Amino acid sequence: xxxxxxxxxxxxxxxxxxxxxxxxxxxxxxxxxxxxxxxxxxxxxxxxxxxxxxxxxxxxxxxxxxxxxxxxxxxxxxxxxx
Length: 82
Description:
- By secondary structure, the protein is an alpha+beta fold.
- It has helices at residues 2-7, 15-22, 26-39, 62-71; strands at residues 45-50, 54-59.
- It is built from 4 helices and 2 strands.
- α2 packs across α3.
């Protein structure tokens, strides 16, 4: 959900957006972003963080990114523990 939301917007999304959409804590969202940033180079994207604005995605390899998105299931809300 996080990657799809970022991909479907042209602007930064604040952390509160993800907290509300996923109904999780700030810490959970931060953990998720830490994981997504860690695996980003293998899956064709970069996540940018701007203080006061939020998060933004830059897709650098659309094929790799699309394959990664397609591999995710609805249950993959919090993947940092995998």
